[in-house]
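User: Some background: our group keeps a shared notebook of sequences we're curious about, and every so often someone picks one and asks for a predicted structure to add to the entry. Today it's my turn. The entry only has the sequence so far, pasted here. Could you supply the structure so I can complete it?
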Amino acid sequence: MLAAITLALSACSGGDIAGNIAEEVLENQEGVGDVEIDENNGSVVIEVEDEEGGGSAVIGGGDVPDGFPIPVPDGGTVAAVFTQDSDATVTLTYPASEYDSLVATYQAFVDGTGGDVNTFTSSNPASTTWTVTVDDEAYNISVTEGDPDVTVFLVSSSTG
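Assistant: Of course. Here's the predicted structure to add to the notebook entry:
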């Protein structure tokens, strides 16, 4: 399904005709059912139904899925949301001044999971990434300092 979304995203820049063609091409792929591509208010929304259930992508906005298990601190702007079945990826931006606070928030979350944790940090740009496995769930959290924004990348997926 991710390949379908990638193809659809590349077609969206061509306007309605390209979007309609992308929908038809994707719907003719084995295992892919209905595909809807909509552009509104600066966002591109792609919904794909496939044999496994389907998923969606919202680029340029979107809402954090209900019940998303990773905390999302106030003050961020949602840049993209991808969902497929129970898996979800959310990308947000925050003011650069929030980097240390965000790292502390996610460190506290990771520490509280009781799961297996791997942490990676780098200094140029400042970045901290955690990979957490708890029972049948996996989380990947990345906080990267930038100019003018901090980018937060959150992934929740089922491992079972």
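Suggested note for the entry: The chain is about 25% helix and 45% strand. Residues 99-113 form the longest helix (15 residues).
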